[in-house]
Amino acid sequence: MMENNVFDQMAKRYDTEERMELAKVVVKAVREELRNSKSKSLIDYGSGTGLVSLELSDVVGSILLVDSSEQMLEVAQAKISHRGISNATVLYADFTQETPELKADIILMSLVLLHIPDTEKILQTLFNMLNEGGKLMIVDFDKNENINHPKVHNGFAHDELKNKLAKAGFKSTEMKTFYHGQCIFMKQDASMFIATSIK
Fold first, then answer.
1. Beta bridge partners of 110
2. Angle, CA 161 vertex, CA 160 and CA 166 arms, to 5°
3. How much is the pLDDT for 10?
4. What is the mean pLDDT of the segment spanning 113-140?
5. CA 86 to chain CA centroid, nearest Å
6. 179 and 189 in contact (C-beta within 8 Å)?
């Protein structure tokens, strides 16, 4: 019982009500894009505690949760064990520092790109990791002029991001805004997009 308690406390630290609500919205949008992916491998880059990708374990072949926070991955691992999810594993890594020899059919980045200073470089890294014909799925905030933060991009303009994805080598990108929420981005009202790019 003790273990359970520690896990709950850890999870609560990260999995706030707001994050859980937002994750539900993201899961719904991503699941729609993952039709016919039963045999595919997915990397969730910047997975955190797995709030999004662990809800997708039934629609893909395998999931690798990658994060640069060991604590968050501990929570993710505990969830995997708790729920008996047999096709998910975790990896402690930071692709902006070093790139492990990994390949995947699908890479998901949910609310992660805004935290990475060099957008072009990470897109190139992810492009290289994808198998031929693979898919990069980015969920993030639309450009938001109300937000100014030294460490975080204030969202992304569709045209600019599409250009960067094309520059990284992606053949095509479909991008749409799918959600508007109150106080979801640095306490500001904001909208989120999902972009799906094909290698």
1. 139
2. 100
3. 75
4. 97
5. 20
6. no
Please give the pLDDT value at position 4.
60
Query: What is the spatial distance between Cα 34 and Cα 196, in angstroms, rounded to a whole number?
Result: 10
Quote the tokens at residue 147. Answer: 């937000």
| Confidence band for 1, pLDDT divided at 50, 70 and 90 | very low
**Residue 150 confidence class, pLDDT cut points 50, 70, 90:** confident
Give strand pairing partners of 193. Answer: 140, 177
Q: Can you give the pTM of this predicted structure? A: 0.95
Contact yes or no for 58/32 (Cβ under 8 A) = no
Residues paired with 185 in a beta bridge: 188
Q: How far is CA 106 from the centre of its chain?
A: 11
Residues contacting 39, CB < 8 A, separation 6+: 61
Start-to-end C-alpha separation, the chain: 47
Q: How far apart are CA 114 and CA 199, in angstroms?
A: 22
128: closest CA among 90, 163, 95? 95
pLDDT for 2 beyond 60 = no
